[in-house]
Records
---
Amino acid sequence: MKKVLLLLAVVGLLSTACGSANQAETEAPDAAAAPAAETTEAAASAGVAIALITPEDASVPMGDAELVLQVVDPATNEPVAVENLEVDLSMPMDGMDPMTTMAVVEPGAEAGQYKVMTNLGMEGMWMMTVKSADAAMPGEAVFNLDVK
Ligand SMILES: [Cu+2]
């Protein structure tokens, strides 16, 4: 009699484990989506602050584009020039490697501003990663560009 009870207990444990495994699987997409929304906040708090000032709404027409970035020193809240600003543009593609494009970065009209000249050849959401490679003033920010 003891053996039968033990067996029943084991079966009960197995089905519970199976049930919770299924639950974990259905919750996974939500958990994966959450960190993406936090990315911009996390990036903004590390090192220099990098903002996209043109276009303000991050909406860019397809083709040749000129964007303006501004780098701000969080200690003084003033624009600051950094030695080297790296800009990487890519578009995630279903079942393919991400699409990339060229980006030429030049100092802009005012201190701490940088012009980004690029060509976005496809409509949709592009991801622009901007990184200050200045050892004294590091910083990184990610922007989602809506290309129309
Ligand atoms: Cu694409």
---
Amino acid sequence: MCKHVLNAQVAIRSPCCRKWFDCAECHAETADHPLLQSFEMVFACKKCKKCFRKDAREFEDSDEYCPRCDNHFVLDAMTPKPSLQVEGEDVRVDARMLKDDRVQGEQQRSIFDVKDAADRLG
Ligand SMILES: [Zn+2]
Ligand SMILES: [Zn+2]
Ligand SMILES: [Zn+2]
């Protein structure tokens, strides 16, 4: 259970260093490099402990559930602090993940905030 996304249902494996993190923020705190962006994400369900892959380009409603135990892992992230802005809060993977705006200082967090974490380090 990470301190950023309190209700995280899955861990994600970073494509860059191939370690497991509960969220992109955890990677940002422990790694010395920006989180590599990847369309194919490897998840580990915290309920059944099984790993599975998802392609962010083909993410559908049914993909919000663990393929092994049907645990609903795409949730609105519960974070310790209230978020200052709404943009980027959607935990579903969508096109906004790919936008190139540099956002700084905000507290938006979700397990899919890959680009955001990379920006803050880069
Ligand atoms: Zn890494
Ligand atoms: Zn975290
Ligand atoms: Zn599961």
---
Amino acid sequence: MSSRTQPLETDYMRLMAHELKIPISSAKMLADLVQSTGELNNQQQQYLEKMITVFDRMAQFINDILELARLDKNHEPLEVLPCSLTVFVKDAEELISAMIQEKNLTVVHEFDSELSVVEGSPQLLALVVNNLVGNAVKYNVANGTIKIAIKAIENFYQFRIEDSGIGIPQEDLPSVFQPFFRSNHAKRRRIEGTGLGLALVQRVVELHHGTITVSSVVNQGTTFVMSLPLPNPTPDQSVSMNA
Ligand SMILES: Nc1ncnc2c1ncn2[C@@H]1O[C@H](COP(=O)(O)OP(=O)(O)OP(=O)(O)O)[C@@H](O)[C@H]1O
Ligand SMILES: [Mg+2]
């Protein structure tokens, strides 16, 4: 099932996010400073660490809002570079390796080439892969699996990520790419999130002339399939291919 997102109320969102950005980063800085001012007892240390985690989450939320607003407003062409999807996958797994270990997940790769290069914005495509890998880990169950396959099919690279996690009820599937949507199936399990990750993913995929679809079975797992165009052949290559 695929779905297109509605435009966000960007001006208010952007204003609010900007106004909150500085106080939140100041609060985070102060919390970091407290940590460096001297010995804290165990309980103080625990509270402070929780506080820092909350500030980090708020800062991430603000950044996601600003990024969504920027993508909604900005119709300038993307500055594109060759990007390796397999490198993004490995970087994303590195970022979330602590949770992969904690849940004892098995991650399987099926890559049909070493780099799988597409043309795109490295920062935005890394964000897409981080979100999809992040969800596959976050919504997975202990001892679960994640399969990531990347292969060239005609003019596209197909990126497929399949997890063995909690799944998404069928009636929620059309909404998962909407900003702020979170399934009750996830909320009931007290899994944290803001519901912005997939909205960003879909915007970025559209900007790269790609597509993304989702399918899922509750308590069995979820699969996202993203297709991104292969880079145009350079004139030299097209000559040699036509020869
Ligand atoms: N792999 C998955 N397995 C199960 N549910 C998922 C999966 N990916 C997304 N979802 C559901 O779709 C909702 C939207 O996902 P999205 O990534 O946009 O937000 P989030 O994970 O809640 O928060 P964040 O903004 O931190 O990513 C989730 O809240 C969850 O209900
Ligand atoms: Mg997410």
